[in-house]
């Protein structure tokens, strides 16, 4: 009986060993199969993300807008004023137009008559000059949303309304000139008037 | 004693024979399914609108896409070329002179991909951030589809529309960029 159980035990162990080998082989095959399935079930492609970083748009004031002098209105006369109009944006050439009675070159004397004696220095009069820098070839628009600050008491200053679109050159720069209108209501106290007007440029 | 020995021998033989009778065989069924290979195809790339570089700070523009391929654009910092640093500036203008003149781009085009595979199966998508190039970083690539990650028998439901965020570091040189990103799909 002892030998019988001994033989049976050996035989059983052999069977178990074979089963383990079999399981091991099956497991290996499963791993291989899993690996192949993963590889086949994954796909990739490449997407290009493209765009353009463009240069910062900046503005620099080279010259202020200078209206020069206007004569104050007398008594019940109409408001006086002067208009600086740019006639050539490439050179900055401009014209000066005074409202009736506004020109300082025509001053009233004590008798109420007027002479044509020039009493002002016009060399300081001229449009504002602005340089804009940004992305070469791009267009921009310019606006002046506010009136001059610091100007008070029946005096107004404004710059021309811009229209259309300007283009930056091959160097990414452009220059434009700014004219405007300066007026003084009847009864304004004579004196220096100065302020600032914000010029805004935006890619258009 | 001899009888006992004989009896033991017979018993041993009988036991061995009994063991042989307990071995049996059976056929086990084996079956499986081969499913369609998973593929992904790039139909068109992602185009990002102009982004202004800022000398002092980073700027960015994000393109988000619906599952119908409709893009929306969001700028951060001073990156918007049509409202750069200006509170009172006009907004995006489709009649932009830059567009009319053929320069500049303020519109985004979603990247479009098509996935094919076994109908009804789900898949996962990965889109790692590519390496930054010359101060320009692409991040947050996100894709949307009508099928929402499940392969459909209807082709349009397998179309993915992808957007991303592009960031320009402070003082990045103004230039065009074209950065490749690998999109991978896997049965999930």
Keywords:
heterodimer, A: about 200 residues, alpha+beta, four-stranded antiparallel sheet, three-stranded antiparallel sheet, 1 helix, 11 strands, about 20% helix, elongated, disordered N terminus, B: about 190 residues, mainly beta, six-stranded antiparallel sheet, two-stranded antiparallel sheet, about 35% strand
Describe the structure.
The complex is a heterodimer of chains A (204) and B (188). The termini of chain A are far apart. Chain A is of the alpha+beta class and 204 residues long. Chain A is built from one helix and eleven strands, in the order αβββββββββββ. In chain A, a hairpin with a 4-residue loop joins strand 3 and strand 4 (93-98). Chain A is 19% helix and 33% strand. In chain A, the strands form three sheets. Chain A has a four-stranded antiparallel beta sheet, with no helix packed on it. Chain A has one helix spanning 2-40; strands at 42-54, 58-63, 80-88, 93-98, 128-133, 139-143, 155-159, 166-167, 173-178, 180-184, 200-203. Chain B is mainly beta and 188 residues long. Helix content of chain B is 13%, strand content 35%. Chain B is built from two helices and ten strands. Chain B has helices at 2-21, 97-100, and strands at 39-44, 46-47, 51-52, 59-65, 71-76, 111-116, 123-126, 136-144, 159-168, 175-187. In chain B, a hairpin with a 5-residue loop joins strand 4 and strand 5 (71-76). The longest helix of chain B has 20 residues, at 2-21. The model of chain B is unreliable at 85-90 (pLDDT under 50). Strand 1 of chain A pairs antiparallel with strand 10 (175-187) of chain B.
Give the strand content of chain A: 25-35%
Characterize the quaternary organization of these chains: heterodimer
Largest interface summary: A-B, 38 and 71 residues
Overall mean pLDDT of chain B: 85
Q: Give me the number of helical elements of chain B.
A: 2
How big is the Rg of chain B? 33 Å
Low-confidence blocks of residues of chain B: 85-90
Shape of chain A: elongated
Q: Cα distance, first to last residue of chain A?
A: 105 Å
Helix/strand order of chain B, N-terminal first = HEEEEEHEEEEE
Unreliable residue stretches of chain A: 1-39, 107-116
How many strands of chain A? 11
Largest sheet of chain A: 4 strands, antiparallel
Determine the fraction of residues in helical runs of chain A and give it as a percent range: 10-25%
| Spatial strand sequence of the major β-sheet of chain A | 4-3-10-7
Number of strands of chain B: 10
Mean pLDDT of chain A: 74
The number of helical segments of chain A is 1
Estimate what percentage of residues of chain B fall within beta strands: 25-35%
Helix content of chain B: 10-25%
Structural class of chain A: alpha+beta
